[in-house]
Amino acid sequence: MPDSCRLLLRILYTINSSGYILAxxxxxxAVTLISNEAPELxxxxxxxxKACLEAICRSSPELMxxxxxxxxxxxxxxxxxxxAPAPLxxxxxxxxxxxxxxxxxxxxxxxxxxxxxxLMSQALKMEEQEPITVVGTLGKQGSGQDAIEVIVALREVxxxxx
Length: 162
Prior knowledge:
Blueprint: E1 4-15, E2 21-24, E3 29-34, E4 44-48, H1 49-59, E5 69-76, E6 114-119, H2 120-125, E7 133-140, E8 146-158
Parallel strand pairs: 1-8
Antiparallel strand pairs: 1-2, 1-3, 3-4, 4-7, 5-6, 5-8, 7-8
């Protein structure tokens, strides 16, 4: 497998903890593959952070319309998942299994770490002499094409327009 390639970019993102929205890059982006000694693990790659933000802005242009608002950006890093603390079980649980309000067993919550990336407006303005990269998971799009997927959470913050 080559050390780098060009793949379509899929970004699953939330705004203020809403449901996920899918943004796609219009063209393939440069991906640096991360070597993985354990073949059973999902393959990962590094993609330019700015390409992720640009795809989100194309998908949700309203995010950039109001200059009194900005967004803190958090990217889920699947490689850091093993360092995450065990999830807290705050469900209705009568034993070691999690249950929903109706008492049905639910899937265990996975461990994950979100990495703070700063404000979206500042990241979009950054020059790209040395681009910041984020980790994504290699997989396929619904159409079967190879792609890399990055998961992002945006949290609205107020800015003081002076």
